[in-house]
Design brief:
475 residues, 17 helices, single chain, 25 strands, alpha+beta, 27% helix, Glutamine Phosphoribosylpyrophosphate, subunit 1, domain 1, Rossmann fold, six-stranded antiparallel beta sheet, 2 domains, elongated, 25% strand
């Protein structure tokens, strides 16, 4: 039995380090701390200044990188990648970092995000004779570099990235360079840090710095290319400026609450979202419980603002994978019950407020609500610390199609009836943005709530999902 999540999935996590004798070990630890951003596959590429050494496999970081495997990854510079879990296209050849040989020498690349024009580029390259080894959009970048007539790697990379559109936080590794690049809109996070031994580190989130005693220095800016080699570090800005479009869903759901991304504390923003929700959507109740773990901090903010006690009424199992042996006797709502269990003492006879950070299809929410109702809750009020998700994402988040998104096809009243709750309320768009007022990083992308997409795209397959899933759905 394959358990399908009712939550969106992030594309991946990336980590890079330069000038460290423990490059492979630190990359392993950084990827381990960002396991929440991708659980399908993981890979590391290192360099000793002459060659690139790569190992990648399917599964979780701790299971893939045994000590003997890490010892084989020699060198003082490395990049790593965690890939997210999808239905379809889940096979080893799509694991990153990608490693290729070209006239520019060996090149490895790790990518977080999604290129919205990769179909066009891929089709053109294949007509010109390129043979692709994977079904991921990231591979078009290395093919464009290989096709470039530029003999300088940095020039070839700039020329290639000038042809792609969409979201990319990239790490590129060669025997000479470690390069970190963020797209002009800055959709996906990318932070830079420094260790006491002088090593420079890049990661998707600062939680990857804490585990390796790395000091956060700053974010890689939208449109910036940071180049490191034996001569030092320099920044280039080779792309036209664009309006910042930072993914607000990173704050709502994806990033770990102990991380700093987009120059702000995820914990602080998430708590502010909960406080805003309590102000605009109050309700009389006896207890507040979050849907763990991503809604915990928003629920805490709601509790502090409303004065309603916070309790852990749902306990989540952290030891489940995607595949389970289903019992011979069918258990209704098996998927929800294997992941969550209700603490009856918390909800029995109580007016309960459930706080969640998002609702996609609504199927899991409905099952959770039924479990709480069966545990004796007198009233159930459902509050969501984000606006209704009405549109898919094309910039690196696996959000379902319009047809599958319950808020895209139903009114609030209809959703409330479907969920079987006494009341339902979402955070409004304006109050969501109030939670990040004064943000130093600039504007946010809220296309999943508004359908206002900051970068244009074309849908070649005739459906909304085709641009953020893989090109093939089976091997």
């Amino acid at each position: 039995m394959i358990l399908q999540s009712d939550k969106p999935k992030e594309e991946c996590a990336i980590y890079g380090i330069y000038n460290s004798k423990e490059a492979a070990n630190f990359t392993y630890l950084g990827l381990y701390s960002m396991q929440h951003r991708g659980q399908e596959s993981s890979g590391i590429v290192t360099t000793d200044g002459s060659h690139l050494y790569r190992y990648a496999n399917m599964g979780l970081v701790a299971n893939i990188f045994t000590q003997p495997k890490i010892k084989e990854l020699i060198g003082d510079a490395a990049i790593g990648h965690n890939r997210y879990s999808t239905t379809g296209a889940s096979f080893l050849r799509n694991a990153q970092p990608i490693r290729v040989e070209s006239h520019l020498g060996p090149v490895a690349l790790a990518h977080n995000g999604n290129l919205v024009n990769s179909w066009d580029i891929r089709n053109r390259l294949e007509r010109d004779g390129s043979i692709f080894q994977t079904t991921i959009d990231s591979e078009v970048i290395v093919h464009l570099m290989a096709k470039s007539h530029k003999t300088d790697l940095l020039e070839a990379l700039c020329e290639s990235l000038a042809q792609v559109r969409g979201a990319y936080s990239l790490l590129v590794l060669t025997p000479r360079y470690l390069i970190a690049v963020r797209d002009p809109n800055g959709f996906r996070p990318l932070v830079m840090g420094k260790r006491s031994d002088g090593a420079i580190v890049f990661a998707s989130e600062t939680c990857a710095f804490d585990i390796t005693d790395t000091e956060y220095v700053r974010d890689v800016e939208p449109g910036e290319m940071v180049v490191i080699d034996h001569t030092g570090m320099r920044s280039l800005y080779p792309f036209p400026k664009a309006k910042p479009s930072l993914c607000i869903f990173e704050y709502i759901y994806f990033a770990r609450p102990d991380s700093y991304i987009f120059e702000e504390s995820v914990y602080k923003v998430r708590k502010s979202l909960g406080r805003q929700l309590a102000r605009v959507m109050p309700v009389e109740a006896d207890v507040i419980i979050p849907v763990p773990d991503s809604a915990n901090i928003a629920a805490l903010g709601y509790s502090e603002e409303s004065g309603i006690p916070y309790q852990s009424g749902l306990i989540r199992s952290h030891y489940i994978g995607r595949t389970f042996i289903e019992p011979d006797q069918k258990i209704r709502d098996f998927g929800a019950k294997i992941k969550y269990n209700v603490v009856k003492e918390v909800v029995n006879g109580k007016r309960v407020v459930i706080i969640d950070d998002s609702v996609m299809r609504g199927t899991t929410s409905r099952k959770i609500i039924k479990m709480i109702r069966n545990a004796g809750a007198k009233e159930i009020h459902f509050r969501v610390s984000a606006p209704p998700t009405v549109a898919p994402c094309y910039y690196g988040i696996d959000i379902p199609t319009h047809k599958e998104l319950i808020a895209s096809t139903h009114t609030i009243e209809e959703i409330q009836k479907y969920l079987r709750v006494d009341s339902l309320a979402y955070l409004t768009l304006d109050t969501m943005h109030k939670a990040v007022e004064g943000h130093k990083g600039g504007g946010f992308c809220d296309a999943c709530f508004t359908s206002n997409y900051p970068v244009e795209f074309q849908d070649h397959a005739g459906n909304q999902k085709s641009l953020f899933t893989e090109y093939a759905t089976e091997e």
